[in-house]
Design brief:
There is one protein chain. 39% of the residues lie in helices and 24% in strands. It is an alpha+beta fold. The protein has two domains: 161 residues, Jelly Rolls, CATH 2.60.120; 75 residues, Arc Repressor Mutant, subunit A, CATH 1.10.10.10. The protein has a four-stranded antiparallel β-sheet. Helix 4 runs antiparallel to helix 9 and helix 5 crosses helix 8. The longest helix has 27 residues. The N terminus is likely disordered.
C-alpha cells in the first residue's frame, strides 16, 4: 500500500515502503515538533510484554507496523483481549503519568516497529498543544469503544465469526494482508482453545479466505473474510479510529 505524502512525516521502512503511525502522521508540524525529541523508535517481537498489572510503566506506544493487544488476566490464568491497537492509534496502561493502579496487560501480538514516549512527556506536550490533547482523548475513546463492543461480542458471537472479525480488523489497521501471528496468541485474544483456532483456520483456508503456514496468515479474499465476520465490524470501523478523528478535526 502507498501512503499519501501527508502521512509520512514520521515514518519507518517496511519492505522498501514508507510507513508510519497514522496518528503521528496526522499531527501538524508544530505538534510533531513537541513530540519528536521524546519519541524513541524500536523494533519489538511478538509476545513482548509492555506492561502488566504487576509491573507498572508510564510509557505510551505508537505502533507503526505491529499490533498491541490489551488483555485482562482472569483468576484462572486465562487472558481475554479488551482492545487492540495498530498504526491507527496509540496505547499504554494509562495516559496519566501519576496513575499507579493497572488492571490490564499490554502484549505485542504482531511484531514490528513502534515509537515509544513517556506519558509525562506526552502530557507535557499536550498542555502546550490542542491537537495532542485531542490525540490523547481520541485514543482513550477508542480503547473504551473496543472494550464495550468486544465484551458483547465475546458473549454472543461464535468463535469463527469472532476470529474473522479479529483478522479483518487487524489487517485493516496494519494495512497489510499478511499477518505474522501464532495460533496461541490468537487463541488468547479470543479466549478460546488453540485447537479451536486451528480448526477455524483450516476451514477458512479450505474455503479460500486465507492461507496459513508457520505463524503467518495471508488473507486471500478480504471481501469474503468481511462477510464471514460478525456484525461488530460495523461498529469497530474507521470512524472511531483516533487517526481518522484527528484528520477530521483539522480545519479546512
Amino acid at each position: 500500500m502507498t501512503l499519501p505524502p501527508e502521512m509520512l512525516r514520521q515514518s519507518v521502512t517496511r519492505d522498501g515502503e514508507k510507513i508510519s503511525n497514522a496518528c503521528l502522521a496526522a499531527l501538524s508540524s508544530s505538534a510533531m515538533a513537541l513530540l519528536k525529541p521524546h519519541l524513541i523508535e524500536m523494533e519489538l517481537t511478538e509476545g513482548t510484554v509492555l506492561w502488566s498489572s504487576r509491573g507498572s510503566t508510564n510509557d505510551i506506544y505508537f505502533p507503526a507496523s505491529g499490533l498491541i493487544s490489551v488483555v485482562l488476566a482472569m483468576s484462572n490464568g486465562e487472558l481475554v483481549e479488551t482492545a487492540s491497537i495498530a498504526r491507527e492509534g496509540a496505547v499504554g496502561p494509562y495516559f496519566d503519568p501519576d496513575q499507579s493502579d493497572y488492571l490490564t496487560t499490554g502484549i505485542v501480538q504482531v511484531g514490528g516497529n513502534f515509537f515509544r514516549i513517556s506519558a509525562s512527556s506526552l502530557i507535557s506536550a499536550a498542555n502546550k498543544n490542542r491537537q495532542i490533547r485531542d490525540l490523547i482523548g481520541f485514543c482513550k475513546d477508542w480503547l473504551l469503544v473496543q472494550a464495550q463492543q468486544i465484551a458483547a461480542c465475546n458473549a454472543i458471537h461464535p468463535a469463527d465469526k469472532r476470529f474473522c472479525r479479529w483478522l479483518h480488523e487487524s489487517a485493516q489497521r496494519m494495512e497489510t494482508a499478511n499477518i505474522r501471528v501464532t495460533q496461541e496468541l490468537i487463541a488468547a485474544a479470543l479466549a478460546v482453545r488453540r485447537t479451536t483456532v486451528t480448526l477455524i483456520a483450516q476451514s477458512l483456508q479450505n474455503n479460500g479466505l486465507i492461507q496459513y503456514k508457520r505463524g503467518k496468515i495471508a488473507i486471500s479474499d478480504m471481501r469474503l473474510l468481511r462477510a464471514a465476520a460478525c456484525a461488530c465490524c460495523n461498529v469497530l470501523n474507521r470512524r472511531h479510529w483516533p487517526s481518522m478523528r484527528l484528520l477530521a478535526a483539522i480545519p479546512p
